[in-house]
UniProtKB/TrEMBL annotation, chains A, B, C, D:
Keyword Aminoacyl-tRNA synthetase attributed: no
Keywords linked to the UniProt accession: Glutamine amidotransferase, Glycosyltransferase, Transferase
Domain Glutamine amidotransferase type-2 residues, every copy: 2-249
Source species of the chain: Streptacidiphilus monticola
Listed name of the protein: Class II glutamine amidotransferase
Length: 287, 287, 287, 287
């Protein structure tokens, strides 16, 4: 499967999280501990929103860098991470479940101001693919450039109103996948942790049809982090709003990382973050 | 647009046609003369059927080598061409018309024993894509791995019976594209030269809705070639059945290369080759 | 050969020069007008110094992005250029003169705070290579990661004191190449336009043994540019210190672009820029 | 480090050894068991000598295919292996010890009819590199295209007469490395298993300065293999001369795979193979 990381908070250099932690995302590309595979070597991607502090005229759309080689040896990624500062970024390392290793299959995916990344899979995707493509809003279909289930899920959600109401749209996407799977007699339709953002807020989802979802963790509040890592100069200067969400913790879990509960989603935003059950949205979507 | 070459005849090393001629396909990747662009640097591919003479137990399915870099600098292609001998091979250099430069968008495409390559484009493909995807035989749709019009045309034709009757299936594919374009008010729907093969025979098509099709040439009979190039050791030993079909000639045209007429197709096979009008097949397909 | 661009001045988005001008560097990758080849498709690179306005804690070393595919199709480069703002950057598109197409052969090259890029060639480089490697400061030799003459020239110059006195070090490098060539009986030893920088100043050189050097142009003062392009919002807001140096102009030459004279070099810096003859430095180096 | 495989015997399809065995070389790219790392994802290469049975006019020089992506996802390698038949081939999966991931750093390396591949490292290579480059036969130095210790070792050996007397040349190379390391105070200079061939014979070496060399195994005689794998159609038809040499066994070791003893080399050839101590050659080289 894959591993991902989403960051929201004080602008920091990407490599503070991609390279420097003990069990950084790049380390996870070789030695993931909580995934089905230890190895995530089938491509890497980062998407970042510009740091607008002190600059004017910058574009507000996110930037993408995606590469098909393994993350651990990517010299461009290393330089980029050491020079790009962002208040909101996504990073993803891929372990292909069968679809080709190509740039258009690397996460994050982008649509206008929106980013999307996914860990997991649609069961029997090859069999369900056509019906799911037909369920995509017709005007959006030609924008699908790769061949992954993840990008298709993104475009389903976009068509279901992701830009207006992310939890409702993601719930409708989940129901669409599960109904299509049911029609084909495919059990355990969906396995997913997903992150999406418009540059202002960030939504993270943990869900699977079988209620045995891939792991997902969010960071403790920054004050606690600061006490846990008193010697880390970055931790001590972060804004209290700062939040990190990851497939697996970047270091010792105790006190620093909390699990997103099964079938829940979080909203990371200015002001109080939220952690909510998906169930009401799924119930509404099924109606 | 693109340039391609199809070879049928005595087993020869690929580089006899890819590298050695004065205006070889690799030379055309930098300096095409008859295309819309002089440059075809967005990927390269070769597909070859094994040379079964003297070997047993070899697979009969064609092999593919496809690479996203420009053909002129591909060291793997150069070595492969200098070492692989084949009695039937396709080679293609790509100039993207907008779809991503990735391996799954490189020609030739393969389905079982069948190869397919294309030069040209479907007009307003982005707009027509969804309707055309829906017209693909449902069981075949998930096999589409890239995002080109060319691969979609191949899968339309496969669903229309390419493996049984290539000219009829290609004619139905053409009609499908033209009808879909008409429905959307898109003029000049299709521009194509196409080659396809099952390893036994080879079909080449030249067609465009506007009847101003891209160039396509076939080689004169081998005896004439031998007289034209008396010093070429390869030309003098080729089987009389040998035929080369190309987007543009590999050298001086005079006496060596004949144009495939507008809206026609050729069948290259053991015994007499054929050159026939597409019109009757199109008329049948429209019924 | 190659084409390059060096920018010094008000922080701007890279794509203002890489993509937007009529005859931008990316356009030159397909359609160069003044080079030996029209095609520069063997890799691309950008090196940029961080924009320190409004940010603190940023690294002061330059960042590199180098890719082996053609510049015109590089989606990562396009996104990077649309999001990275820099007051001093280099960009280079490569046409290999025989050395492999690989990331370590792409320009710019970096050593600490220094960047270097080159258009041209050392004559009979294969023959002279060993003697030139021996002339590199021993401690620097293992830092050479690729196989180009350009990177070797950079390391020769570094060993000759590039970081203390760029014109003197470049002159010594030139003499070293010319003396080595003379020893081997190789005429017309060197052909070069070179740019180098430490992030504060920028030096550009135009030289060839035969005094028929590749073209090199610098932009007119910004006020004149502003009058020439009254509708360009970027041109009108640039700092008067701003200077662009290019292998070939990015648009109509008249009034906007001045040729660097044969065997001269320029210093682009805060305050008055300088344009000086290389001759005195060469004379000193030969002593 | 790396893993490699060398095959000599009846012409077989490459995928019989690269993909089909339980613990094939491609499987080892993800899950090596006896290496320092389990992961060999920094490039892959195969070199093969043509199968001349039944064909004439084929080139006698070996072909190379080398790619920088991980072996497990390389679609070109998979197709090549399923279609290329060879009586003598090398395959190598790379785990970089610091040098860049690029095609010219992938094994095998080639010089005329000769192939070379290596697992291991020269200690403190960065420090010793210059002196070792100086020890390369001057005319050969410019042929070094990459930056690995392995390619440098090959060129040292070539200069020391590899093409005339491989064991003597390899012994001189070893002494050169060890003497250079001693001069610099570097302990445990060399760690290597090496395979080299001219297309007629194949030499394999196992050596390390500290006498704790990487593993190396050769296959039992073909009759025993046939009894061990009675159901394998390929094993039962192999010529008795057939021999496989591998960094780690392709399946259960018992009865099928024998370790090359420390500081020994083997000669695989028509007629009786040989397994000999390196010591006498090293003693002679040191004189």
């Amino acid at each position: 499967m894959c591993r991902w990381l989403a960051y929201y908070g004080s602008p920091i250099l990407l490599d503070e999280l991609l390279y420097k932690p003990e069990h950084s995302l790049i380390d996870q590309s070789r030695h993931a501990r909580m995934g089905v595979e230890t190895l995530n070597g089938d491509g890497v991607g980062v998407g970042w929103y510009p740091d607008l502090s002190g600059a004017d005229g910058s574009p507000s759309t996110p930037a993408l860098f995606r590469s098909t080689g393994p993350a651990w040896g990517d010299m461009n990624l290393q330089d980029l991470a050491a020079h790009v500062r962002s208040p909101l970024f996504f990073a993803h390392i891929r372990a292909s479940t069968g679809t080709p290793v190509q740039q258009t299959n690397c996460h994050p995916f982008r649509h206008g101001r929106w980013l999307w990344m996914h860990n997991g899979a649609i069961a029997s995707f090859h069999e369900l693919k056509r019906d799911l493509l037909l369920a995509v809003e017709p005007a959006l279909l030609p924008d699908i450039l790769g061949s992954t289930d993840s990008e298709l899920m993104f475009h389903l959600a976009l068509g279901f109103g992701l830009e207006e109401d992310p939890p409702a749209a993601v719930a409708r996407m989940i129901c669409q996948v599960e109904e299509t799977a049911a029609k084909h007699g495919v059990p355990d339709a969906l396995q997913m942790t997903v992150a999406t953002s418009d540059g202002d807020r960030m939504w993270v989802f943990r869900y699977s049809t079988a209620r045995r979802s891939r792991t997902l963790f969010f960071s403790t509040d920054v004050e606690t982090l600061g006490r846990l890592y008193p010697d880390d100069p970055v931790m001590s200067t972060l804004d209290p709003e700062t939040r990190i969400v990851v497939s697996e913790p970047l270091g010792p879990r105790e006190g620093a990382w909390n699990e997103v509960p099964e079938s829940c989603f979080g909203v990371v935003q200015s002001g109080q973050d939220e952690l909510l059950p998906l169930q009401p949205y799924l119930a509404a979507a099924r109606r």
